[in-house]
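anyone seen this seq b4? input:
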Amino acid sequence: MRILSIHADRMWYRATKKTKMAEQITEKEDCMEECVVLFCCVEKLDEKNPAHVIESAKQSVLVRLEKLKVDRVLIYPYAHLTSTLGSPAVSLEILTGLEKALKDEGITVKRAPFGWYKQFEIRGKGHPLADLSMTICPYEGTECDFTCPYCHHPFKEADAEHVCPGAAVCGQMQEGKAGKIP
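predicted toks r here
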């Protein structure tokens, strides 16, 4: 899972158009003030262990909120942080799971609708800790085996063919069978 976290004075969005995977919504427009906005993108490998991804993301977000002294979060589905998107069903499962997990910790949480095109406006605070990107590894433990030199995704060696469209090239490079990455 990839998260771009922005400490914001205000975040506003309006759902403008459904995609074929859009969830049903009752409100098309919402905003939150004095919050941390989490632009979230679920990746293909997150499908291996959604519960672990939710728990790891929750812990990472709680650490961030503690540093910023903030207890308000707006989760904003944002598919543009990866080239290896997870399935819509698992993505929604993880995003709603993160929403519930943070609420269970006493955090005020709003979530923008999944599967919709949206207009948005954000006013970031602009201090040194205001912006942070996070990569949540879907594996147990703290480290993945590798970061692919081709696409820069963390992964375990056994999953190489599922992560990277250039996995064959990466594998050949690791074994010394190929030259430069195209």
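Residues 50-68 form the longest helix (19 residues). The first strand starts at residue 2 and ends at 18. kinda curious what u guys think
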